[in-house]
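Limitations
The structure tokens in this dataset are predictions for the assembled complex, not deposited experimental models. Users should treat interface geometry with appropriate caution, especially where small molecules or nucleic acid strands are included. An illustrative entry is reproduced here so readers can see what is and is not provided.
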Amino acid sequence: MDDVDRALIAELQRDATQAYATLGKAVGLSAGAAHDRVRKLRERGVIRRTTVDVDPTALGRGVLAFVMVDSSAWMGDATESFAAVPEIQEAHIIAGTASVLVKVRTATTDQLQDVLRRLYTIEGVSGTQATVVLETFFERPVRAD
Amino acid sequence: MDDVDRALIAELQRDATQAYATLGKAVGLSAGAAHDRVRKLRERGVIRRTTVDVDPTALGRGVLAFVMVDSSAWMGDATESFAAVPEIQEAHIIAGTASVLVKVRTATTDQLQDVLRRLYTIEGVSGTQATVVLETFFERPVRAD
DNA sequence: CATGAAAATCCGTGTCA
DNA sequence: TGACACGGATTTTCATG
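Predicted assembly:
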């Protein structure tokens, strides 16, 4: 994991469709060497997967909200319960007053309300505080450099 | 934007490196037809880009926190000020008590503290409430189906 | 769907710590 | 000596009509 690896990752985050020859040129490597490095980054799990970034609105997921989930019990083993709700994009255990923070995307605020209702059906959940996003400034990949 | 498009997107989210022949087979299309569909999805901006998903810890960004930023002024034009802080991965204008919600990734809690300090230098920022993530259950792409 | 062009992948060889 | 980079040969994939 040196500066060349970081440069490769930054380039791939920007555009993972570019040819290894182009990629190599951008970081000062031959196509083969660039390919080798990237393969190893994948093997080591540094690069988890190659994916596409999709416009949520086009998928009928125009409403974004963050929900603080309060609980009356240990939520450490509740991964599956949260993962079972398809509208939940992220779920994190947090320090502080609430126990779980989830990021939710729905088509409408009605659907958001329905997600909140389903959250209450999860064992141990005692309350929710939803914060609706009015405008997203930006969402970008983790900085590699 | 029909069910086939949604299936294509779901497949690409899972693995964007697969060949169009494989992709086509997965959704019941020929390689050429799959290629055509995906090209159009890119042109229409539904697929914004192809990127790699990287392990934040490997990049020295093992600490994740969400920060509620309070303000004494309209923050609607502050995109650039937040974007200038490289540790900020997402920034959203929110409804409710605080005005901006940011997602921050740093190597250490010391660095997190430094990010908070820099947030206070942004015009109009009057307070912050940081919530540190103890464990991430999951982070996944927006559901396409 | 076929076909030329281009890219990915494999592998032998050389080189630098 | 081991890890890495190079570059050519082969196979696969892409993109065009």
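Some entries come with short summary sentences. For this one: Chain A has a mean pLDDT of 95.
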